[in-house]
Every structure is written in C-alpha cells, then in structure tokens.
Design a protein that fits this description.
The complex is a heterotrimer of chains A (176), B (144) and C (111).
Chain A: H1 2-21, H2 25-45, H3 49-72, H4 84-107, H5 122-133, H6 138-146, H7 148-168
Chain B: H1 6-28, H2 37-55, H3 59-89, H4 113-136
Chain C: H1 2-19, H2 23-44, H3 67-98
Helix pairs in contact in C: 1-2, 2-3
Chain lengths: 176, 144, 111
C-alpha cells in the first residue's frame, strides 16, 4: 500500500508539472484531470470512500467548466519574450521555493508518524456517533449533526458564488 | 450552440434518466453508505448538463428556464435553514435533532440527517445547473 | 517522506502562480495547490490496518479511520469548486473586454 501511494503521488507531481508547462491550454486542462483522478485513487487507498465519490464528480465538473471557458475564448498561450524582468522573477521564485521547502520539511518533523494518528477528538465521535445521532455513516453524522454550522456556511458560500457568477456574466442591465 | 448527432442524442436520453435516479439514491441513503447531499447533488446536475450539451442550446427557452432553476436553488437552502431553526423555536438550541433516532442501519433513522441531505442535494444540483447555463449563454467574441 | 511529497505538489502549484502570465494557467495552479491540501488532510487522519468510517455492526469492536479530517475535506472540496467557477467566470469576462488572457496587458482602466 505504501509503495502504490508513493507511485501515485509521483504521477500526480509529474502531471502537475506538465499542466503548468504546456503551451496549449486544452492539454493543460487535461493534465489537471490526471492530478484530480489520481487524488481519487489516493482517497480510496486511504480508506475514505465518501471523499472519493465527491472528488470524482467535482473533478469532472471542474473540467467541464474550464473547457467550456476555453472553447469560448482562446486556446493558446502567448509567447514569452526573454527580458531581464523574466529572468529575475524566475531566480527569485526558485530561491523562495527552496527556502519554503526547508521550512516545510522542518515543520513536518513535529507531526506524528504516518499511520498512528493522535485521536483525541475523534474518539468521542467514533464511540458516541451511532448512539447519539443514529446514523451509520460517521462522516455524515459529523458534518450534519456534530458540526452542522460548517455545513450551513458551506451552503451559503456556494449560494454566494452562484450569485456572483450571475452578476458578473450578466447580459442586460445597461443601456447598450 | 448546435446539438450533436442523432446517436449521441438518443443515448443521452437513455442515460440521463439512469444518472438522475442514481443521484437520488446517493442522496437518500447518505446516512448509511458513503455519499450524502453534496455528491448526490452534483450527480443529479450532471444528468441535466448531459442533456443540455447533447441537444444544443435554444437561447430563449434557456433564458426562461433560468428563473425556475434559481427559485429551486433558493428554496433548497431555505429548507435547510427551516430545519435548523425548528430547534430554536422549540425552546432549546439551534440544530436540535428533533426527530426520533430509530433502529440503526434502517433507512428511516438518524433524525434530521436524511432531511438535511435532501435539502442540500436540491440546492447543490440547482446551483451547478445555474453555473453551467450562465457559462454557456455567454456569446463568443462580444466586445463592448 | 510522504508528507514531503505532498508539500512538493504544493510548491509546484505555487511556482505556477508566481511564474505564469496566462489567467487560465493561474486558475489551474490554484486548483493544484488546493488538491495538495486535501491530500495532506486525508493523510493526517489515516490509521494503519483500519477500516472506512462506516459502522458495520453495533456489537463488535472495530478499528476506524479518523472521520474528522474527512469531514473537513468534504466541505473544502465543494468550496474549491465554487471558487474555481467564480474565477473562470471573471476570466471569461476579462477576455471579452480586453481580448487577451495575458495579465501584463490588462492594465488600462476602462470606464
């Protein structure tokens, strides 16, 4: 299981690098699909079927939205002229990423080992979940009964995003 | 936007019903098996998006239908808010689980959890249909 | 080691946001950064030789994976979809006004 997990993550990193580098926008979007579907397989290996179902359908819809936007507009990225600004920004980005990689590597030493989590909060949810709510799916009992405020906030965010999209893409409303 | 060929239109009519009922199954059994309101809502919207893309766009019809979809989305989140405020009206706290708990692993169990799943399923499916309709109705190359 | 690969995906997405000039590439890099975060949260909650958090029977003692990070990631996935859709709608509108996706050419304020 460990080896398959590492191979999937290396595939996702390779797909991400190709998605960012490619000049054609359609290939970039399809390579982003590799990252998304690889994440679904990772969720299945990590014993999270709820997340795998949501991730696969949301990834399909993200691809549909991006491809609909690309087909309406342009499909190619414009060329980059080599100038001093481009070289300096490239060097600054690489230095920043190396510093961040060291900081993150140091921060991960404080986490418990992979496979032995610190289950202080979740012991209550696992033991009392079925008795207090009656739902067999523990994740559903957490998001809809123990932490229902977060679900209310999430539904509000989705609603607000749809209102924002309808306001931005409006056709009428101004005198033409 | 033009529709696709005859084969695609026929197969999409057969598949859309199947996908719609699969989405309803995942929403209803959200408290027993993996899934729930969000995954089921996205699957239900997928059935309608398949029909839109396969059969082409009729601009006036879709503009009239957009208001009905917006009403459905607002009513979904309003239903979720009503379910959560009933506890407040009964004198105790917000989000009280006021229905009975039932036998475990039965479909009529877990209090308000299936009702909340249904409300969220309606809201998410209508929201995503609205997003895709808005993105498709944008005309190509229209400079102001 | 696994956490380090996860942060490598995060850094690849971050480099995409800093170096690229096309708006759609920036949206793609942001989505890749979000995926790395979901993976990190799911990795934190994994328990060795444990099962998915769905109760099978009331009487036996079974080991379950942590359900709390999974609930957080479930919320985050749907919010990521809403954010991506709004960004794409803004990008399409910008293309209609300026004719290009290049962020260095979108500087004039059109009244």
């Amino acid at each position: 299981m460990f080896v398959i997990l590492i191979l999937l993550m290396i595939l996702m990193i390779a797909g991400a690098v190709v998605a960012i580098q490619s000049k054609d926008l359609l290939s970039a979007v399809i390579c982003m699909g590799i990252v998304g579907f690889g994440l679904t397989l990772v969720f299945l290996i990590l014993q999270a079927p709820d997340l795998a179902i949501v991730q696969i359908v949301v990834e399909t819809l993200t691809l549909i939205i991006l491809i609909a936007a690309i087909l309406k507009t342009t499909m190619k990225e414009s060329k980059v002229k080599k100038s001093a600004v481009v070289v300096y920004s490239g060097i600054a980005t690489v230095i920043l990423l190396i510093i961040l990689a060291f900081i993150l590597g140091d921060a991960f030493k404080g986490l418990p080992d992979f496979g032995c989590p610190d289950l202080r909060m979740s012991e209550y949810y696992i033991e009392q979940g079925l008795k207090k709510t009656g739902a067999a799916n523990l994740v559903a009992s957490v998001i809809l009964d123990f932490r229902a405020y977060d679900t209310l906030g999430e539904a509000t965010v989705l609603f607000t995003a749809v209102m924002g999209i309808l306001a931005v893409l409006r056709r009428k409303g101004r005198k033409e | 936007m033009k529709g696709m060929t005859e084969i695609v239109k026929t197969i999409s009519k057969l598949l859309a019903g199947l996908i719609f009922f699969y989405g309803i199954y995942i929403v209803l059994f959200g408290h027993l098996t993996p899934g729930g309101g969000f995954a089921g809502g996205v699957i239900i919207s997928g059935a309608f998006i398949l029909l839109i893309i396969a059969n082409g766009i009729d601009e006036e019809k879709i503009s009239r239908g957009k208001e009905k979809v917006g009403f459905l989305e607002s009513s979904g989140i309003f239903l979720f808010w009503i379910i959560s405020t009933v506890g407040l009206c009964m004198g105790t706290f917000f989000f009280l689980n006021f229905l009975g708990k039932g036998r475990p692993l039965n479909i009529f169990s877990a209090g308000t959890v299936p009702l909340c799943n249904i409300a969220i399923g309606i809201e998410v499916s209508a929201a995503l249909c609205c997003i895709v309709i808005a993105l498709i109705l944008v005309k190509k190359g229209d400079k102001k | 080691m696994i956490y380090f690969l996860c942060s490598l995906l995060f850094l690849v997405g971050l480099s995409g946001i800093l170096l690229k000039r096309n708006l759609i590439k920036i949206v793609i890099s942001l989505t890749i950064m979000e995926y790395s975060l979901f993976m990190f949260l799911a990795l934190v909650g994994y328990k060795q030789n444990a099962l998915a958090p769905i109760v099978k029977s009331v009487t036996e003692e079974v080991n379950y994976v942590d359900p709390l990070p999974q609930a957080l990631v479930l919320t985050a996935i749907v919010i990521g979809l809403a954010t991506t859709a709004l960004l794409v709608a803004l990008a399409v509108r910008i293309y209609e006004k300026y004719g290009t996706f290049d962020i260095r050419k979108i500087r004039r304020l059109k009244g």
